[in-house]
Amino acid sequence: MESGDRQTFLARLRARLESDAPEQLLRPIPAWDGVVPAIAYRADFGDLVDRFSQALALVAGEARVLSGTDDLRALLREICAAHRVERAVLSRDPECAGAAEILADLGVAAEVLASAEQAARADLGVTGAAFGIALTGSVVVDAERAGGRTASLLPPLHLALLRADRLVATPGAVIRALPKRPTGLPSNLVLITGPSRSADIELQLTLGVHGPRHVWVGLL
């Protein structure tokens, strides 16, 4: 239902568009040289693992340091028991090697990602991650190395396995690394920061609206 004076509103809009931008909004734009400049942050990034874990916890995710196969088995057992996982789908990321066998030993039907329909039926999606960002607690999922886009999106639970030496301090470090890819950009590159969330409806925060409700990151 429309309210207010439409013509008056449009007249103000036309006048603003026809006028010059306020002086304080004008900034000189340097010539692009193909290099993304580094940004100096005040935050201390001395221990990237601790910083990443703290940032992920702030957005309702959970990071675990995994020293080996036994730690991964313990984490998968905990997740599967807490959420009654019956089906899991795994990406083709190298970090996922061995996870399918562990899940099978736990009585979970685990399959390598082949279709979106398969991912939609799974309770748990296990993926690798190309990078982790300490500033925000984000993981970077690369569709090319993962073999698809849906293992991290459609199941209600997501476990991302990330090598600790792939942690970087800020998102800019990921962007600066992209031109160095020998195969160019992937078809899909996603920065995932904790569980999916939305507050579109009456500003009530709801988890799991557009993706997983629970997110863990296993730091290898």
Description:
- The chain has 220 residues and is α/β, with parallel strands linked by helices.
- It has one domain (46-219): NagB/RpiA/CoA transferase-like (Rossmann fold).
- Helix content is 29%, strand content 21%.
- The chain contains seven helices and twelve strands.
- It has helices at residues 6-18, 48-58, 69-83, 99-105, 116-121, 143-146, 171-177, and strands at residues 62-65, 87-90, 109-112, 124-128, 131-133, 138-142, 157-162, 167-168, 189-192, 197-198, 206-207, 214-219.
- The strands form three sheets. It has a six-stranded parallel sheet with strand order 1-12-7-4-2-3, with helices on both faces. The chain has a four-stranded mixed sheet with strand order 8-5-6-9.
- The longest helix has 15 residues, at 69-83.
- It starts with 5 loop residues before the first helix and ends with a strand.
- The model has no long low-confidence stretch (mean pLDDT 89).
| Largest sheet features | 6 strands, parallel
The number of E-state strands comes to 12
- CATH C-level: Alpha Beta
Q: What is the count of distinct domains?
A: 1
CATH topology: Rossmann fold
The level of helicity is 25-40%
Beta-strand fraction estimate:
15-25%
Strand order of the largest sheet: 1-12-7-4-2-3
Helix/strand-derived class?
Answer: alpha/beta
